[in-house]
Amino acid sequence: MKWEQALTDYKHYLRIERGLSKNSIENYSYDIKKLILYIETHAIKVSPIIIDTHTVKDFIYSVSKSLNPRSQARLISGLRNFFDYLIFENYRTTNPLDLIESPRIGRKLPDTLSISDIDNLIKAIDLSHHYNGVNLGERNRAIIETLYSCGLRVSELIELKISDLFFEEGFIKVTGKGDKQRFVPIGETTQKFINIWIAIRNHIDVQPHSKDIVFLNYKGGKLTRAMIFTITKQLVEKTGLHKNVSPHTFRHSFATHLLENGADLRAIQMMLGHESITTTEIYMHVDRSHLSDILNKYHPRT
Which runs of E-coded beta strand occur in 74-176? Predict the structure, then answer.
């Protein structure tokens, strides 16, 4: 079996058997492509079926010099999953990563914004901003409000459809990782801003493949992930906010603020679309003062 064929088969497995999204599959494939490039560059005559631990170790050492411990751990995990797949398909009997340890890393806590930070970012949006006759200011306000108020991933936001909006019921249908769908509550304020944008959107010449997409660019096409990052970056610079803010920060802030105000962790898990509760539990570590307040309020011995 050649490397290219092994990678192609693995990507089919991730899409069909695991139900992963296109972005997730590309992330899984990235480190395998780096391994293939390393083997080709060094003219190593080895197939994915017979490659040994020594060769994999040399590769990891060569690329890890420029990686932090977290990236090294992700690299090792990605390769281990690939070779586990080859074992599953009976191409191999052992995993060359079995004897390779991942670096110890601390649990990374997500960055969060305060409520006043979010208010200031939204207030900084120029609602009169037009480009080619399209009011992009109103669109950007609706985007930031939706990211924060519904806790969406960027990929979920740009794929949000008009047919997914159930405002009378107070929910939107979100398609998350692995095409798994969930219903997320949406508040009246966010509904109002989306409706303002949709009224503007109705006057845009929408491209055929984007007829049902909520957030569009001025050309009537679907927005890219990069555009959402650009919108966020410009707002942060405009407000002079000295925090490391990305679109995902609004999602983290959504979950943290819910927890701080007494929301149930299981409910937060469902709204975020986390498959495992352990992923959601990271928010338990964000605000320890909140946990102390709960103990003081509810424990009989305090």
Answer: 130-131, 134-135, 165-166, 171-175
Q: Is 270 exposed, middle or buried (0-12, 13-18, 19+ CB in 10 A)?
A: middle
The reported pLDDT for the residue numbered 282 is 66
Is position 18 annotated as part of the catalytic site?
no
Catalytic hit among 74, 177, 182, 225: 177
- Among residues 282, 291, 290, 292, the alpha carbon closest in space to that of 106 is found at 282
pTM of the predicted structure, to 2 decimals: 0.65
CA gap 167, 44 in Å, rounded:
59
Closest C-alpha to 35, from 88, 96, 87: 96
Task: Identify which has the larger pLDDT, 14 or 301.
Answer: 14
Q: Which two tokens stand for residue 185?
A: 């509550």
Residue ranges of domains in the chain, CATH in brackets: 3-88 (1.10.150), 115-294 (1.10.443.10)
CA–CA distance from 68 to each of 60, 97, 244, 263 (Å)? 12, 19, 18, 35
Q: Is the pLDDT of residue 290 over 70?
A: no
153 is catalytic: yes
288 is catalytic: no
* Tokens matching residue 22: 């296109």
177 catalytically annotated: yes
Find the catalytic residue in 153, 201, 252, 257. 153
Catalytic residue among 92, 139, 201, 251: 251
Is 70 a catalytic site residue?
no
Q: What is the pLDDT of residues 177-186, one digit of tens each?
A: 878 899 999 9
CA distances from 292 to 82, 96, 289 (A): 43, 46, 5
Q: In 42-126, where does DSSP find H-type helix?
A: 53-64, 69-88, 115-123
Active site (annotated) includes residue 283: yes
Quick: pLDDT tens for 215-266.
999 999 999 999 999 999 999 999 999 888 999 999 999 988 988 888 887 8
